[in-house]
Amino acid sequence: MGNSALRTLATLEETPLSEYAGATVAIDAHHWIYRYLTGLTRYMDDNIYTTEDGTELPNVAGVFRGLPPILREDITPVFVFDGKPHERKADEIQSRRDAKQEAKQKMADAAEAGDTAAMKRYKAQTQSLTPAIHETTREALELLGIPYIEAGGAGEAYTAKMVEYGLADAAMTDDYDALLFGSPTTIRQYTGKGPAEKMLLNKTLHNHGITHEQLVDIGLMCGTDYNDGISGIGPKRGVKYITSGKTVEEILEDKGATIDGLSQLRELFLSPTIGSVPDTPLTRTEPDFAQFRAFANEWEFPTQFIEKNISRFPRYAE
DNA sequence: CTCGAACA
DNA sequence: TGTTCGAGG
């Protein structure tokens, strides 16, 4: 599974963050946190983010590094946390779990061999979003006046709908699923430095002369986080078959293949379960840096590290 | 993600 | 020859 096929189909354009000045961006919290966790554990000494009782909270340091550039553009970030994953994602979740387990083993081996660089590389791969990380991330967002929402299902689906409903101007995630969930505009590859990448649904559809429904069908044939695709079909043949007027059902018949619960999968992307959405746009409030300092202190973060991060935030009225 | 092998 | 697959960094 996995969906690198969508990468070759997607229309991607470079975009400076300033293009979204004053806008609201719905951020896939899971992806955001994970990105910073792996990045940070790779380069930072772990005693900086480990508390006395051994709890590792690299999020407290990492999650906020990306915020100042966004706030300086007067962008309102809205973090969207995942709800319960769809049961069809179970296999994908299991294989990620297996990969982490394998990385753990390799990390232990590297530690044994005294290979610190390899150890850190594998450690990054073992990172997962623990309950403690979830809890402290929400708490810190509150202290920094950043709004967040709990999605009723997949975060990517929720952020896509927020853009569709006009509650946000763009979704932010690296996940190509955003296209299948119908996000009109998705910001990818945001690093806080240099331009990001925007992925546009309309241009993608127009480039291939297909509808959103057809894109979903192509995705399902190539394989997604929720299903194995049809062996021998990638992005090229997928587009070719669908634009020649064949239906997925016909292609399956030709290949003697099956996709379990095809209509359920289509629904999953075209009308995902998202839970309730707010009826008014979310706004941010003034950060409480004093409380944030106290919070960081509680988690034993070095003061100079926290101060450095705070100094990057735009100036608010004291 | 990049690359070479396998395949239609 | 172009496309997909699968291993490895």
TrEMBL record:
Keywords of the record: Endonuclease, Hydrolase, Magnesium, Metal-binding, Nuclease
InterPro entries in UniProt: 5-3_exonuclease_C_sf, HhH2, PIN-like_dom_sf, XPG-I_dom, XPG/Rad2, XPG_DNA_repair_N
An example molecular function term from Gene Ontology annotations: hydrolase activity
Name this polypeptide is given: Flap structure-specific endonuclease
Domain XPG-I: 142-210
Record-linked SUPFAM superfamilies: 5' to 3' exonuclease, C-terminal subdomain, PIN domain-like
Domain XPG N-terminal: 1-103
Any Pfam family matching the protein: XPG_N
Function statement: Structure-specific nuclease with 5'-flap endonuclease and 5'-3' exonuclease activities involved in DNA replication and repair. During DNA replication, cleaves the 5'-overhanging flap structure that is generated by displacement synthesis when DNA polymerase encounters the 5'-end of a downstream Okazaki fragment. Binds the unpaired 3'-DNA end and kinks the DNA to facilitate 5' cleavage specificity. Cleaves one nucleotide into the double-stranded DNA from the junction in flap DNA, leaving a nick for ligation. Also involved in the base excision repair (BER) pathway.
NADP is among the record's keywords: no
Cofactor: Mg(2+)
Keyword Isomerase recorded: no
